[in-house]
Amino acid sequence: MRDKQNDSKKSSKDEKPLRQFVKGTVDATNHTLACMEHSYNDAQEFVSSRIRPLYRQMSYAGSRILDLYEQRQLYGPQIIGSSSVLLGGLTAVRRGRIPGAFMGVMAGAGAYAAVYGVKVYPSKKN
Asked: d(Cα 24, Cα 27) in Å, to the nearest integer?
């Protein structure tokens, strides 16, 4: 009987250091998580403050590009001619006249297809 009382006293004494250990571990974990959350929020605030104005500018530029793309057929000859001259001229400077002329023709054909569209599949007539 006396052994049981001694055992219960020992286990209650052992619980205190165990509880202190668990409490210290929980406190350290909570502190670490709080520090990580704080640094994450700081980084997120920094990035979002830089991204938001950039997003606004890119949105404006994208809407302007889309407007120009919708009006591309109004400037078809200028787009095709400038593409041919620019790419053909750059190629001619680097590679020579014949490759430059070939690249100019190919760039013009590509620009024509981009501006006016090319039907990939012929329409079937009944």
From this structure: 5
The DSSP H or E segment spanning 71 is none
- d(C-alpha 36, C-alpha 30), whole Å: 10
Asked if residues 84 and 108 have their Cβ atoms less than 8 Å apart, the reply is yes
pLDDT per residue over 25-60, tens digit each?
Answer: 999 999 999 999 998 888 888 888 888 888 899 999
> Is residue 107 packed enough to be buried (19+ CB in 10 Å), middle (13-18) or exposed (0-12)?
buried
With contact defined as beta carbons under 8 Å apart, do 88 and 103 qualify? yes
Give 69's pLDDT tier (boundaries 50, 70, 90): confident
| Residue that is written with structure tokens 């052992």 in the block | 14
Residue ranges per structural domain of the chain: 1-70, 74-126
